[in-house]
Amino acid sequence: MARVILTGSLRDLAQTKDTGPIEIDAADVRELLRKLEDRLPGIAKRVEDGLSIAIDGDIVADPLLEPIGADSEIHFLPSIQGGS
Amino acid sequence: MATAEVDQQKKFKWIGTRPVRPDGLDKVRGRANYGADHALPGMIWGKVLRSPHAHARIVSIDTSKAEAMEGVHAVITAADLPEILSEESKIGEGPTNFRDLSHNVIAREKALYHGHAVAAVAATTSAIAQQALEAIQVEYEVLPHVLEGDDAQAPDAPILHDDLFTKGVEPRPTRPSNVASRTEMGRGDAEAGLAKADHVITRSFRTKAVHQGYIEPHAVVATLGEDGRATVWASSQGHFMIRAYCAKLLGMDQSQIKVIPAEIGGGFGGKTTVYLEPLAIALSGKAGRPVKMVMSREEVFRATGPASATRIELRMGCTKDGKLTGAHARLEYEAGAFPGSPVGAAVMTLFAPYDIDGCLAEGYDIVVNKCKVAAYRAPGAPMAAYAVETVVDELAEKCGIDPIEFRLQNASREGTQSAFGPKFKRIGNIETLEAAKAHPHYSAPLGPNQGRGVASGFWFNGGMQSSATVQVADDGTICVVSGNPDIGGSRASLAMMAAEEFGIDVKLVDPQIADTSVVGFSDLTGGSRVTFATGMAVVDACRDVIRQLRERAASIWGIEVDAVKWSDGAARATNGDAGLEPLSLRDIALKAARTGGPISGRASLTARGVGMAFAVHICDVEVDPETGKVDVVRYTTVQDAGRAIHPSYVEGQMQGGAAQGIGWALNEEYIYDADGKMENPGFLDYRMPVASDLPMIDTVIVEVPNPTHPYGVRGVGEVPIVPPIPAVVNAVHAATGVRITELPLSPPRVLAAMDARRN
Amino acid sequence: MNGSGYEAPRTVEETVTLLQQANGAARVLAGGTDLLAQMKMGMTSPALLIDVKKIPELASIEQTADGGFRIGAAVCGAALAEHAALVAAWPGIVEAARLIGSEQIQGRASLGGNLCNGSPAADSVPALIAAGATCTIAGPGGTRSVAVEDVITAPGKTCLATGELVVDFRLPPRPDGSDARAAKAGDAYLRMIPRSEMDIAIVGAGVSLTLDEAGVCTAARVGLGAVAATPLRVDAAAAALIGTTLDDAALAAAGEAASAAARPIDDKRGTIAYRKQVAGVLTRRAAKIALARAGGNG
Prior knowledge:
CATH superfamily of the domain at 380-461 and 611-758 in chain B: Aldehyde oxidase/xanthine dehydrogenase, molybdopterin binding domain
Helix content of chain A: 10-25%
Strand content of chain A: 25-35%
Radius of gyration of chain B: 27 Å
CATH topology of chain A: Ubiquitin-like (UB roll)
CATH class of the domain at 380-461 and 611-758 in chain B: Alpha Beta
Shape of chain A: globular
Distance between the termini of chain B: 66 Å
CATH topology of the domain at 380-461 and 611-758 in chain B: Aldehyde Oxidoreductase, domain 4
CATH class of chain A: Alpha Beta
Oligomer: heterotrimer
Largest interface: A-B, 27 and 56 residues
Strand content of chain B: 15-25%
CATH superfamily of chain A: Beta-grasp domain
Radius of gyration of chain A: 12 Å
Distance between the termini of chain A: 38 Å
Number of domains of chain A: 1
Strand order of the largest sheet of chain B: 3-7-1-14-11-12-13
CATH architecture of chain A: Roll
Number of strands of chain A: 5
Number of strands of chain B: 28
CATH architecture of the domain at 380-461 and 611-758 in chain B: 2-Layer Sandwich
Order of helices and strands of chain A: EEHHEEE
């Protein structure tokens, strides 16, 4: 089971301040989002509006087909602007 | 797309060497073609009329007098561009709302800052265009304006956008606000962490807007023909970005627009959006002639995107033996006239170097009647680092612990749950701190009125989409084609990675940047991503070519492709086919026509496995006790580059970031009068450092390879601007005993602080 | 920049005639480092530019019979620095002129232009005031001699009437050993800028000193820049130095007098309080350098 950890502004989706990890069985991000939408209504829209997803520490901007491992840890993050 | 890894311990032939840069000769001989260098037959000149008010309703615009002038070919206002609905874009860097972008390019109902474009003309000469601007009559209804983030939040503040409601707060507001959004990020319980602390420092910081200060002003030449097809020559950080934005803003298909990149004279994030390009296309369409537009330096200051002015309130605490326990930050970032400051990145980066039990950062994005901010090198991070790194310095002092030792005790490392969520993968935080501590600079003696400061910095770096093609000429030379403007040496590093892959001399590789019709889509040059991500695309495309080369060799030899390996620039038969002489790249290229035709490879990818970057800077200053003037007398940058492909470029990035950060710390600031007009829109009074202001900036490249990049690359361009502000401020404290919480550290401010302490 | 007429006369008389004929619509062009920049910014658009660099008196430096110097108004900073006798006698004036602009600007920018631009922050002016320099002004009615401190009357304004131009600067002689009361002399100029170069003074201070054989100051002049609407001559600061050996108390008094004389404004470059305070600091420091150059006991 992958573990989804909500931090920061995403915690309001869960309607509570101290959410533990949410355990979800999903092969890729698309499946994860579909299953997560039932538990956290509105999450898919937030991702669509510009959230990045970190899978085991790798931040991925556009990740629908990204595979998720059995023990993966998933975080949602705001998109980051870059300069250089 | 998976990129095969290379042995990280392998000895390289080209990676890590310093060949002559491919763009160097043209640049030093003045032959490089920058944005303003392009010209076309029949070309005319475009100029922009700008608002003299910080906030005003545009009642009417009468262009008839200007249109009647001899030599004037076109006059446009917002009415000549399609009205764009509110829609979030994901094309550029971070979210952009297309309606806001359209309104920033040319004001529609309201002018929202002094310098906001309200009309544009094209005429046979620049002087006629200037006279035509003066003939345009705009009737304004001047509105009350608000210039500071604090004032913008007042209950009676003038509201910039009637339809802007603060996002991210519950319940959803019912009244419009200048606070565009609230975001937060953290882990654990910040207040509980602070309650456990023996020492808690509470400080409030202010920073002013600063400009990237790229040498080359924005410039464009555009044609729009009767067939509806446009060609644009422009200097930018991403010609695909220009194509997409212009198509959207002008209601065109992307296939109708070709954008040809010019050599770029600096960007630093400031050329990640459009200003002139849509206007030039629209003017050209109306005039039936190519139109050239070049901003003056004054326009660059008044109407392009500086970095946010900020106010940060920070509380941090640690135990008496120096363990950070809790931190809370409130960050208010001015976005300028439209939402979209980089406060989100600030909220995510500020505590990243540390492993803190409980931390929380709240970010507020605030609109004011000033030009819309743009990305500037690690957007949002330097101001946040100013707050955190000076408070960390103060906590270390309270504990009586050496500031680098204090940072080492609290440093995030591989496996640490980051303050922004995920666990860190392999990072070089500890390694950079240790290298800084061991550097002779850190223990060198100081003179009178001198002090030493250190600070850490963190930046995520970017991945995003890149494309590359690799073509083999029949003489065995290679052309590497990518779609990213080269602002930091990417042509050199892409050529070197290709040479390494093929095992040939780097002189045989020609790196080219192609226009939007030639190479696959590539996200813009930003986020320190090109050597990393486009480098991966080049490596993949090279491997595609090498696979074909092995196939060709196999067919020439009449053996199985599995029995052919590629090494040191040649196909070699394995399995004891001893009689077969190796076939070089040139040998195979010569026979390409008879073995299946031209050989080329391509790759398009979304880069995964971005390597995050850490840096530590050491700064010595000397402060004149009677004038408050701060001189940086010695400066060392230490940074984890993953692996430096071309170390000279990496060092150049480290030095350039330090120089810009020192300027930000000491003298740079947007100064506004009460009417919202910038008072210092030129390099005389907008004081960037000149060469004689800075010492040699020493560099130490630490290499903790990024395990997911074929050559271990981490982005290097942005993190070097994160530590300089706090490094300078901490050094000034060490020299004078004063902690200054407002930038810049101009002589009057420093002297006043020293006098206050002396009295 | 719209089209302006251009003339390059060879004599002062011709120049005066041209200026008179233009009746205020002409501008004198020496190095052009202020004028051309102002024209590009649209701040001025003169109908006629009169280039004075081809007039021999304006383009030369001479040592005068009394041991002083005559410096043509259009001589550039780089040429001042190449004149060994001038550098030896008036190092403060040369260092002030050398602070103007970049190395490229130094090949053009002149003392005459720096003065006639009328900026309160002009670097060479406080040093010239401290030196007791006068300038020769030629006009329709002949020539007149005016003390440098009397030329600038307000920001951007000078005492020059229509048809007049500055021809040269006259510097008094320095001690030649014949007068025991004026045995040694030295001058110095310092300015405060936030950067190390390429900037405009927030405060400028010029000091010139004459010492007797015993090292007692017998004459002093102090000029300040960027602390009032015009560059200032500060007699009170000079008086604090005269009769002393420039001991710490005398230097402090001179500094206080300079601070008191400063009447600055708050602007984007600095504050009133800062400028007043630093005027004193720089006066003290410039006096010490001038003392060292005079071979005093500093």
